[in-house]
Amino acid sequence: MAGQFQGKVAIVTGGSSGIGQAAAIAFAREGAKVVVAADKNVAGGNKTVKIIKKAGGEATFIKTDVSQEGEVKALVDSTVDLYGRLDYAFNNAGTAIGFIGPITELTEEQWDRGMAVNLKGIWLCMKYEIRYMLGHGGGAIVNTSSLAGLRALPSTPIYTAAKHGIIGLTKCAAQTYARAGIRVNAICPGLTLTPLVMKEMDCSDLEAAAREERIPLGRLGKPEEVAEVAVWLCSDTASFVIGAAVVVDGGTLA
After folding, report:
1. At what angle do helices 18-29 and 223-234 cross, to 10 degrees?
2. pTM of the predicted protein model
3. Which of 38, 117, 174, 248 is 20 to 30 A removed from 167 (C-alpha atoms)?
4. Considering the domain boundaries, does residue 253 fall inside one?
5. Which domain holds residue 209?
6. For residue 153, what pLDDT band results from cuts at 50, 70 and 90?
7. Within a domain: residue 141?
């Protein structure tokens, strides 16, 4: 598979389904060797690898809980041991919205659990990805936030806070490491047809869901549409894009 990422290596967390799976396939399509990481959905991660290999690409699956520092360090170390380098990272792993209600009813356990993957996991991934990239010519990193990182969703305080935090971390890292040749950006998807979203919505009428969410395009997004933006942000054609929070939402935020 020859493309703009030929000879390069990418890590995709949360790569077992949805946006992560679509991104892993897209990176491979462009010639990158892809390390697919996921925690609970091992079968899905292996399926992603199988799809890539069937198309002629190269990929491997590494089970990783991104909320655990040792596992994140092992993910990066194993990637470099296996493929000899790391050029791109799409830090996409995240949990469901989780707790719904006012902050006065939120427990400490719910807060810690919601933050562990959605925010701490992004920090840990960047920590070890950037440490490697600093000594090896730079690279590009994309973090998955959400529309909830740009506006308040009052009934989802943990999710909203975590997604806002991702954008803050992204901007800090972008400014700190830009001159070292490391570009860091975030994407903010709107409602997208992923297994996680569909499970939470429990809605078979997608047009009705789009109307309810006031999506000007009249439909929910496809994982591939979001994934292509993440891949573009890693490419040389996005070389002047640094510290951005790119909205991919069919016009919802506007």
Report:
1. 50
2. 0.93
3. 38
4. no
5. 9-248
6. confident
7. yes
For residue 98, the SS3 value is: coil
Give the end-to-end CA distance of the chain in Å, rounded to a whole number.
Answer: 37
Tokens of 248: 């991919």
Q: Which residues pair with 88 in a beta bridge?
A: 10, 140
**Cross-strand bridge partners of residue 189:** 248
148 within some domain: yes
For the sheet with 182-189, list strands across it. Answer: 59-63, 33-38, 9-13, 88-91, 139-144, 182-189, 245-248
Residue of 88, 128, 159, 177 with catalytic role: 159
Q: Are 156 and 99 in contact (CB under 8 A)?
A: yes
Task: Give the DSSP H or E segment for 182.
Answer: strand 182-189
Q: Which two tokens stand for residue 108?
A: 């400490």
CATH of the domain at 89: 3.40.50.720
Identify the pLDDT of residue 215: 85
Nearest of 30, 67, 2, 3 to residue 230 by alpha carbon: 30
Domain count, the chain: 1
- Answer yes or no: are the C-beta atoms of 37 and 75 closer than 8 Å: yes
Q: Does 3 fall in a domain?
A: no
- Alpha-carbon distances, residue 48 vs 59, 61, 84 (angstroms): 9, 8, 21
Q: Do 215 and 250 meet the contact criterion of CB atoms below 8 Å apart?
A: yes
In angstroms, the CA 50 to CA 67 distance is 26
pLDDT at 194 over 80: no
> Is 159 a known active-site residue?
yes
